[in-house]
Amino acid sequence: MKPKHLEKIYHPTDAECLEGNLICECGCKTFGIRFFGEVIGEQIGIEKYQEKYAQTVKAKCSRCGNEYLLYDFARHGYDGLICEEGIVVPDELLKPLVIGEDDLFEIQMQIEVDDEEQFLEEVVNYPPLNNRFSLDDRMSIWSWVVINLTGAKSGKKYNGWVDEELA
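^ that's the sequence the OP posted. Answer follows.
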């Protein structure tokens, strides 16, 4: 199973599909990135917006221009979505990522999700959530996300550009 919203571009590098490289539907491996979050050195953290928390990452293919939502704290983070601590920010607040000479990146993601039994108990069958979620949502509600980048021009690795515990 892959995260639903990344199904077409997420290419797992492990048997559990918890790590993967992103490749556009057109076959391109480099993306421009737009994001919302607090810049901390060469990483981004969660930032407050309208009294809630937000962090968003979108990637736009450098060849065909398709744009993909990679991660949004309010949609994919356990705390942001299940606990409703997150908020989706307007697209116009996303900033382009430029680090040194790099404005295009190869992207690798790592996600951590609850095991099936825990997800059933704490999300699917948890009465206050009123059956809002099913087991099919498990790969899209993460307890941790890591996004590693490699600069297309420099070849420099930005490991842990996003590294957030989400539960």
